[in-house]
Model the fold of this input.
Amino acid sequence: MCQVSSTETTETVPAEQSSAEHRRFVVALRGAGHTATSQRLAVARALCETRGHVCVEHILAWVREHHPHLQMNKTTVYRALDLFLHLGLVREIRYGGERAQYELTSRGNHIHLVCSICGGLLELDCDVAMELRREAQLRQGFVIDLRTVPLYGICAACRR
Done:
């Protein structure tokens, strides 16, 4: 499974936010002429109720726990994620040879912090990163594309 931070696995997404994000999946699927199958909706629900970044294994585990009656395997999850990527509902993150992780595009832009030891993936608010971008432009005339650049370092848990 992917490496997730302890806050990402314990924090819950507020119910109204999760429901709104889930409705966005239904509208996008139907609007593009796709069927909102039980499997696709279960994968969407897993993404909507999970804070942060999540790998296929975590999505599958969530679906099996919350929807044990559904026939679901990794291939089904990957197919749903491919469709969601195509529809612009999720983005795939893959750094340093680690397995892919997924996050909702509706949760805004941010910079990814990658732990060089455990591979954990954290988020840094864009406002903080924009200061780095401004400084690079002022001092060097260089404009950093912050959407594609992860920042590597060591997370708090690994520093202990």
Remarks:
- The chain has seven helices and five strands.
- The two ends are 22 Å apart (CA to CA).
- The mean pLDDT is 85.
- Residues 24 and 53 are 19 Å apart (CA to CA).
